[in-house]
Model the fold of this input.
Amino acid sequence: MNAMLTEFTLANFKSYNTSDTLSLSRNRLPLGFLTVLIGANAAGKSNALEGLRFLSWLAQGQKLSSIQYAVNSADRVVRGRVNDLCHRGESNFTIGCRLDSTEWNQLDITLNVRDGELHISSERIVGSTSQVPLYDLDQPSDGVGTDVSVAYNNFTKGRNKPRITCSDQMAIFVQLDSPAHFSAKYPHSQQIIPETVREYQRVLKNILFLDPVPARMREYSFKSDKRLQEDGTNLSSVLYRLWQNQPENQQAILNFIQSLPEQAIDGLDFLLGPRDEVMVQLAETFGNTRRFCEAALLSDGTLRVLAIAAAMLSATEGSLVVIEEIDNGVHPNRAQHLLASIRDIAEQRKLRVLLSTHNPALMDALPDAALGDVVFCFRNPEEGDSRLVRLGEMDEFPGLISQGPLGQLVTAGIVDRFVKSPHTPEDRKQQAMAWLSRLQEYENE
Done:
């Protein structure tokens, strides 16, 4: 069975602070089957998703030296300059992830900014059943050099492990996917290490990010495009493949479109261009009249919902789909229908879905079973750094959700107060003792 991503971690990345014991617990983004990331503007939601996007980009075998060229492209990796990636005053940051595998389930990568350039200074994959890492970059480069020494597990006794030389300009786990990298004396290494790193590559490369830009979805795109681009530029191509080649998807697409009010859409059609391009058009029926409206004339909200449908139906089965600001352009009274459509497709196709939202109506539409997987992002009032808290891990979570629908609690500022002023059982015990002490002092007066 293929592994799935269950957690993303980050430390010293942009607005997120160091990985000491306290902060690390706040810098986890646990991923359930439906995870909703909420929080105020500038709290750090986009930075967390950017870190996850960066990890996925590394899994594609990209070179760090090319990251600046990807900043201004449609499929940008990170915003800003290389020096902006580290938390203020720091020169390195760490990103990592956890899989639901039983072995070798944790990857951590630390990157260092040196003279305005990125270098991987530490990387390892570890497991809960072994004290020895699968591999460990423990001798980083310095100066202008890029060669690093990586110790790998030879699955034999002894502290001295064999080493290989890698480049710190690419993720180490994309450089270890061939048995030929390892000595023939260690057949277990030749088998287990390539198998494991290929699984990490597959899981991370297959993450589908969607942050649709309606203005870019109103043009023709080539039929040959299969994977939906993050900004939705090739929406018409992906819908064409889904609609024409897989008829079972047609009703699913129409179900998504029913999230739109005041429309009676009953089909899709496509305009064909002279160079094998396509443009989607929606068929509407009012009374006895059927008319078509092409992408160039569709509203922003309609295009966004079509992009969400295309993402959910075209993503690789078992992968993670990340949809940013899902509430943009969605009518509040249709939020529940849209969320139900996403959940149905995710369940059918075994997808994990990560949504970010500000929409109280969408939060109110979350089923009770999904409330524990809501992650609240906020700025620490004292330090100013971003923190992540999974609501289901809070001691007072049952008391919180018993007060009303999540959207109303967020709007009223109740979630914010609960998260920023947590009360653990130990806190309550200390408060009770202090109250008893004051009572005794009063009685003794």
Q: What stands out?
A: Residues 21-26 have pLDDT under 50 and may be disordered. The CA atoms of residues 99 and 300 lie 36 Å apart.
